[in-house]
Amino acid sequence: MKVKKLYAILMLLLLIVGGCSNETKEEPPEAKVKINDVNIETARGTYQWEKKSFLSNTTVIADAAAPFQIAEDMKAEIVEQSSVANVEFNDGSQPQLQAYLWEEEKRSEELPLNQHNITLPSEKGKYVIEMNAKWSNGDSSYTFVVEVR
Questions:
Q1: Residue 19 burial by Cβ neighbours in a 10 Å radius (0-12, 13-18, 19+)
Q2: Residue 9 maps to a domain
Q3: d(CA 102, CA 41)
Q4: How far apart are CA 43 and CA 93, in angstroms?
Q5: Residue 15 lies in a domain
Q6: pLDDT computed for residue 25 by the predictor
Q7: Single pTM value for the model
Q8: Is residue 123 included in any domain, yes or no?
Q9: φ, ψ for residue 70 (rounded to 5)?
Q10: pLDDT single digits (tens) 68-104
Q11: How far apart are CA 88 and CA 79, in angstroms?
């Protein structure tokens, strides 16, 4: 009888500890951008992310180059005028999202956003686009490059 009680207590303890381990990932999810069913290369930039575990919380702050510098090593994907970029995250989350154009070495105008669809510029040219995503436990910036033809 004592063995059954001990076994039941041990199982209950394991369920409680297992159920409370609501551990989050150590960094923000990857951004996936598609334009007309074509996957666009993205690069994660600066982020701040709080990792929550059963007994402690840890905040990671990662600094990165500015989007125009990140874009120097990226290939521009050729897109049509007024294309729409669909943004998803590999963990299925739906963070608050903003998107901006970068001109030279500074952020310029904010791009129109509907849900997680970014309307790209209609004028021809090469564009560096920065996305800022915010979750309850952190935020992250992402960069991608397109050339409108």
A1: exposed
A2: no
A3: 17
A4: 18
A5: no
A6: 74
A7: 0.82
A8: yes
A9: -60, -40
A10: 999 999 999 999 998 999 999 999 999 999 999 999 8
A11: 19
Q: Of 148, 149, 13, 144, nearest to 70 (Cα)?
A: 144
Position 9 scores a pLDDT of 59
Please tell me the distance from the alpha carbon of residue 50 to that of residue 96, in angstroms, as a whole number: 17
Residue 92: HSE in the Cβ half-sphere, 13 Å Cα cutoff: 0
Please report, as a single letter, which amino acid is at residue 17: V
Domain count for the chain, please give it. 1
Beta bridge partners of 98: 132
The pLDDT of residue 54 is 80
Quickly tell me which residue has 């039941």 as its tokens. Answer: 8
Identify the domain containing residue 124 by its residue range.
23-148
Asked if residue 108 is part of any domain, the answer here is yes
Write the pLDDT tens digit of every residue in 102-127: 998 999 999 999 999 999 999 999 99
Does 55 have pLDDT greater than 50? yes
> CA–CA separation, 3 vs 123, rounded Å?
76
Tell me the CATH number at 144: 2.60.40
Quick count: other Cβ atoms within 10 Å of Cβ 92?
A: 7
